[in-house]
């Protein structure tokens, strides 16, 4: 982990709400692992004071690429940066995905913006496991929440889409599509990697347990300091409290002691409805 001043060598506006930044850094290119993140100073002033965390989307020949969704003042300010500008970046941070070299059926599940770290992971799996067959399941509320389809197509991955309103792909939840494919596979040859909102990850944890398929989930929590000092991202696990920013963001699904929201108190079949 280092704090670096890096140059923006390319900026692409993906949509009105999403953009990519390519950052030049030999250090990040050599040290970043799938599932890790960086903390970025989004402005040249003290407002906002804290850096913002962003998952590493790709490693490029020059450094890394970030896929960023405009979600508040900090990301709006960052979106105004131009090619050639320099920004302060701290990273790489956190614990990433552990690649299962003996598993050939790779199931990547993303909820909306959760797709960000999964491309980097897919790229590394292909390089390290030539026999891997990658299936990517991307879900969102509407078609505007579907990202990175073209990137995954370049990796020759099989793609499955779902949206809550049916505007793109299957109408319904992404786990419904996932379950239809899982029944065709041998569980011992499968591994699930997932990133997205906690309700989705809870459902993946349930599927993992019921189908006896190992799963790793990248948790989404508010990360203030990003280095384990503020303790603001603590979660309950089977081994006690852990910090998403330092011990994660990637955890084995069976580790997490999920907190079920009050509006989900009634018995819900997570595998079907999320």
Describe the structure.
With 274 residues, this protein is of the alpha/beta class. It folds into 2 domains: 2-93, Elongation Factor Tu (Ef-tu), domain 3, CATH 2.40.30.10; 105-273, Rossmann fold, CATH 3.40.50. Helix content is 22%, strand content 34%. It is built from 7 helices and 15 strands. A 7-stranded mixed β-sheet has the order 10-9-8-7-11-12-15, sandwiched between helices. Strands 1-2-5-4-3-6 form a 6-stranded antiparallel β-barrel. It has a two-stranded antiparallel ribbon with strand order 13-14. Residues 265-274 have low confidence and may be disordered.
The CATH topology name of the largest domain reads Rossmann fold
Rough outline: globular
List the secondary-structure elements in sequence, H or E.
EEHEEEHEEHEHEEHEHEEEEH
Order of strands across the main sheet: 10-9-8-7-11-12-15
Number of domains: 2
Rounded radius of gyration (Å): 18 Å
Q: Can you give the helix content as a percent range?
A: 10-25%
CATH superfamily grouping of the largest domain: Nucleotide-binding domain of ferredoxin-NADP reductase (FNR) module
Which stretches are poorly predicted, pLDDT < 50 over at least 5 residues? 265-274
**How would you sum up the major sheet?**
7 strands, mixed
Proportion of residues in β-strands: 25-35%
Output the CATH class name of the largest domain. Answer: Alpha Beta
Termini separation comes to 36 Å
| Overall pLDDT score | 92
Number of helices: 7
User: From the 3D coordinates, which CATH architecture of the largest domain would you assign?
Assistant: 3-Layer(aba) Sandwich
The chain-level structural class is: alpha/beta
Q: How many beta strands in the DSSP annotation? A: 15
């Amino acid at each position: 982990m280092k704090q670096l001043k890096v140059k923006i060598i390319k900026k692409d506006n993906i949509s009105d709400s999403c953009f990519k930044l390519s950052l030049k850094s030999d250090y990040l290119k050599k040290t970043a692992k799938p599932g890790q993140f960086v903390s970025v100073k989004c402005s040249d002033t003290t407002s906002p004071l804290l850096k913002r965390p962003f998952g590493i989307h790709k490693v490029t020949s020059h450094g890394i690429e970030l896929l960023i969704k405009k979600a508040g003042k900090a990301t709006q300010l960052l979106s105004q940066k131009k090619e050639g500008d320099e920004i302060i970046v701290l990273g790489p941070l956190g614990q990433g995905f552990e690649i299962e070299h003996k598993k050939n059926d790779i199931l990547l599940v993303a909820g909306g913006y959760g797709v960000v770290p999964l491309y980097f992971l897919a790229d590394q799996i292909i390089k390290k496991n030539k026999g891997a067959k990658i299936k990517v399941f991307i879900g969102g509320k509407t078609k505007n929440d579907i990202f990175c389809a073209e990137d995954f197509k370049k990796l020759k991955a099989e793609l499955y889409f779902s949206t809550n309103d049916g505007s793109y792909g299957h109408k319904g939840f992404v786990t419904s599509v996932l379950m239809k494919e899982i029944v065709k596979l041998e569980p011992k040859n499968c591994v699930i990697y997932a990133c997205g909102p906690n309700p989705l990850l809870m459902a993946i944890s349930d599927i993992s347990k019921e189908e006896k398929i190992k799963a790793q989930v990248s948790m989404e929590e508010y990360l203030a300091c990003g280095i384990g000092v503020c303790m603001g991202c603590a979660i309950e696990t089977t081994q006690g409290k852990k910090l998403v920013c330092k011990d994660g963001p990637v955890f084995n699904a069976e580790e997490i002691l999920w907190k079920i929201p009050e509006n989900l108190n009634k018995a819900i079949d997570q595998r079907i409805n999320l």
